[in-house]
UniProtKB/TrEMBL annotation:
It comes from Catharus ustulatus. One of its GO terms (molecular function) is thioredoxin-disulfide reductase (NADPH) activity. This is Thioredoxin-like fold domain-containing protein. InterPro entries: Thioredoxin-like_fold (IPR012336), Thioredoxin-like_sf (IPR036249). GO terms for cellular component: nucleus. Residues 1-38 form the Thioredoxin-like fold domain.
Amino acid sequence: MPWLAVPYADEARRSRLNRLYGIQGIPTLIVLDSKGDVITRQGRVEVLNDIECREFPWHPKPVLELTDSNAVQLNEGPCLVLFVDSEDDGESEAAKQLIQPIAEKIIAKYKAKEEEAPLLFFVAGEDDMTDSLRDYTNLPEAAPLLTILDMSARAKYVMDVEEITPEIVEAFVSDFLADKLKPEPI
């Protein structure tokens, strides 16, 4: 572990850092810039996915492909998840491109207010982890399927339409942020 770490025995410092950064478990790796601002709270996931650290310091991407290693982020708050049929190689990338401008707009809006974005954005293909997520949240096997999952509130919001367009995604997100959507229980 080539970076500085807080010794486990230093309970006072660990407690202050836990409160300051909202740390709820170990191991946790939070990457800070030179001013002490958070670059990513997902340092552990980033290290696992980028062993050679080519993308260090791992500035957050607006849209992530849902994987086993980053699925833990679904527990951090509401997440927009666009489920696609990944057997079509271009489908996952096209889905990312479709929601990326909306994600960037939301992130920029909240960053300007010095707040964290209220949503994380994911594209989910077809794999065992995605199947487990669909089973756990009782989501249909439809693809494409636009959802917002809020695991901590045990709620889901589902937009099941034939075609997902940027306008549909933007309206869905806007309605969610304005509390206009009715949650379904998970």
